[in-house]
Specification:
The chain has 303 residues and is α/β, with parallel strands linked by helices. The chain folds into two domains: 4-140, HUPs (Rossmann fold), CATH 3.40.50; 148-290, Rossmann fold (3-Layer(aba) Sandwich). It has helices at residues 19-29, 44-66, 88-98, 119-129, 146-149, 169-179, 209-232, 246-257, 279-287; strands at 4-9, 32-39, 79-85, 103-108, 134-138, 154-158, 182-189, 193-198, 201-206, 237-243, 261-266, 292-296. A ten-stranded mixed beta sheet has the order 3-2-1-4-5-12-11-6-7-10, with helices on both faces. A two-stranded antiparallel sheet has the order 8-9. Strand 11 (261-266), helix 9 (279-287) and strand 12 form a beta-alpha-beta unit. Helix 1 (19-29) packs across helix 2. The radius of gyration is 21 Å and the shape is globular. Residues 110-116 and 268-278 have low confidence and may be disordered.
Length: 303
Amino acid sequence: MYHRILVPLDTSELAEVALPYAEQMAGRLGSEITLMSVSHSAGEKEQRVFRSYIQETVAVTKERANRYLEKPTGQDVKVESAILVGNPAEEIVDYAERENIDVIVMVTHGRSGIGRWALGSVADKVLRATERPVVLIRAKGARPDMLKKGVFKRALVPLDGSKESEAVIPYIEELASMLGAEVTLLQVLAIVYHVYISGDASAQVPYTEEEMKPLKASAESYLEKVGSGLKGKGVTTKCQVRVGAAGHEIIKLADEIGADIVAMSTHGRSGVGRLVFGSVAEKVVRTGNTPVLLVRTPGASVE
């Protein structure tokens, strides 16, 4: 599921924020890493710069990834490179499909320098077009403790009760079981209102805590059922039910528990799907402080 990892780079330190995540995954999961750069020109000068940068980065990445190997096997983590010419987003998507990449790990938010990629724009375009799972890392504003304590120790998985939202479960199950991560399953319930109408006037009165209890109990039962499968694989699993705006509650809980990654499906039926196509996942990606793993629901259309 994570056999081949693609890390797009643009020669900037900002884009390299994604490397430690790929390195730990490769070292602990036995994955291969491909470092990819896309130049706008086939000119010899620019190509020479990209070749020199990639060769150096491959060596450093291999050395750091090898540190995550649990037992010395005499075999290094495999790190390869690819330098292409063209539109960065298009080349990333095409390469991932052509080479059967399992997951793309890349940075989003902000420009990485004059003449380099507009990383947020490239990430958005990749997400719209690829069918491959994507791990998005915030280049700026992320919690500084992440890399010190290990990049995958706690995972938050928002679900909405639909099978579509559960498409991410096998991915987080493998990640958590192999890396020893703790998983928190979350369902956010929308605030429910009584509507009272009198003549031309109307009023909304939110459900009381007592009235919300059956809804919360149903959500808790659902999460426990999903969590039982993870627990059966030896994954430490917790469940949380919150009431409010989904995006806000996901970000809030991720910060509260110190989540290292939020794992969610795109194109879920309600709430946590659709990424750029919907407000909840877009809010988590754009304003949250935590890396996000996004898995496209099987059969979902690609824009």
